[in-house]
Amino acid sequence: MTEKFIGDLRLLEACGQPGCPVCRCVAHDSRQHLDALLYEQVTDPHTRRRIRASWGFCNWHTWMLLEIQGSRSGAAIIYEDLLGRLVERVRRDAEAPARPRSWLPASGRRGMRRVRPRERCLVCEAAGEAERRYLETMLAGSGDAELQLAYARSDGLCGPHVLRAIELAAGHKGTSWLAARTALKWARLRDDLARFVSKHDHRNRVPFTATEAAACERAFEVLSGARELFGNDLHPPAG
User: Fold this and answer.
1) For residue 114, which phi and psi values (nearest 5 degrees)?
2) CA triplet 219, 224, 227: central angle to 5 degrees?
């Protein structure tokens, strides 16, 4: 089977599970990528250079390592090396605190240092490419009855992924069907959420339904994407 066909099957399967199907597929691919890297590429020179350039993995993929069985040995090799480099870096910066501070400073002319940014997490880079392929598959679903049926049964895409799909499509006809179907799902979720809110009235004696009880968490994912998949705003870009 081709990579595209395997991806299509994974997306169809994800439509039958809770939450945004694309979020679920991207998280699945990330775990597979990390698993393969730890099993096959820990000592690969090119991979190690990439990992050093990004100071390990991002926060999301670093903590995902603990979800992968047998990952600690390979992760320990990688992070022992990184920790040694970080010790050297901090000691060096402590001796010259007035110099610019950032990840991976590079040497410039006449002893001056220029700032060189931390490179992107290599697992995020692969996950971003996979995300684009899944969104392209969703957009092509306007002519795929099987995908449309699967999507009709799903919770729908999250807001961040719908907006990325619209941007990616740039007027592609697939945007209309995807946006229309998803908006209906979100409207039903809003109704569930409204009923959940109203039933908190002290005069209410009607119990919550299962969908109403889960509505708040489902709304979190619609607005923000799956847990940990998208970044936070704690440290916004400068400028």
Assistant:
1) -110, 150
2) 95
